[in-house]
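Field reference: sequence -> structure
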Amino acid sequence: MLNWFKTKTASLESQQRNAVLRVIGDRGSGKTAYMASLARWPNADPTSPVQTVIPVGEAGEELISKAQNILEQGLQLEPTDLTANTADINDYTLRITLKANIGSQLVNLNISSKDYSGEFFSDLLYQAGNPQLQEYLEDCSLATGIMFLADGSSRGKDGEYANGLDKFLTLLDRTDLELDKRRIAFVLTKCEQPELWINRHRPGFLAEARFPQVHRKLQAWQQIGSGSVEYFTTSAFGMLGNNFPEPNVQLLKRDRGGVTAVIKEPKRWRPFGLVAPIYWLCTGDRHKELDKG
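Structure field:
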């Protein structure tokens, strides 16, 4: 779950714009790997609009530790504990600084993310009375923006995700808050996989092709005026090579729930697409350079 704060620095004073966001996604969607990769920001492309990503506090440093001691060793992150007490869940904070261009100032995105466990949509369907799930849903209902992560290879779970999304959106629409319209970013993860990579710059097309039921639910929600939806593609591990790129992953498992993999060559680890959905959720604008990866 995420709290995001965007601060755009003017010449003499700071103008701060706050937004409250949450990240949701099934177990295996790559939520913790996403945050750890973002915190580590390895082998940064010098042409990227991102200047720095800095962890804040002990929990933020823990993300760096997971990246260095687990991901960079070619190991797999352990799933987040499903039985953890909500009050004990880690709250990770990062600061992303985007470079200043001619006529523009630095942009700071301060990110706070609670590392909730997955199985979100199956719990919505089958454990409606679970107190932890109810607390999770109530917290999500306070958000102005939602990042919905889905393994792009988990198309077999489209129907399950759509049914869970139905219940989730109904809850959001019942919330009586004085908020601007909400934003939902549907983010396809693990897009280093060849069948996803070839369409990485067509996220809307890819979302509709792989998750048609989810896509219809989100479009219908947008059309009735409940909020805005955008689509994004990301990879926490990235690719190897330029002329004939291949996924920088060692595949461990593939099934209807998607793929499970570890980094193949940690020294050449370079994620892509991680910051683009964050920028849109905070500003309501797409960033052309961030969309390129």
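Note: The CA atoms of residues 124 and 164 lie 6 Å apart.
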